[in-house]
Amino acid sequence: MKRFTPLAALALLAAPIALAGEINVGFSPEFTEELEDDYGMREADYLIDAVKDDLDRELGKAGLDIPRIEVTILDAMPNKPTFKQLGDTPGLDYGSSKSIGGMKLSATAYDADGNATGDLTYDWYETD
Known about the structure:
This protein has helices at residues 8-13, 29-39, 42-62, 83-88, and strands spanning 22-27, 68-77, 102-110, 116-125. A hairpin with a 5-residue loop joins strand 3 and strand 4. The protein is of the alpha+beta class. It has one domain. A 4-stranded mixed beta sheet has the order 1-2-3-4. It is built from 4 helices and 4 strands, in the order αβααβαββ. The chain is elongated and about 55 Å long.
């Protein structure tokens, strides 16, 4: 999936904050069901790591430290077949198969006292 450079917008919402913090990534109930049924739960760890890495990178570029960010992945689509899709669909070719790919998420930044300082909903898909 493409890197989410616009996530820096979330960092700008919380600019006055000054402590290094944690990034928690979860899934909406609807997307959790889609992961289980269509893509496989194995993909959950890849998505979580990608979002955390992107946020860490963009916050570092912006020179911001935010105590806590809560991210909810609302939807995601792979740009290549997942391991589960390959197993469920005989004849599907990983090398030749391509899909739209992309993600929709929402995030909230919190200050050191636990007060929400900014919200962001963001999506990006290959067709955009």
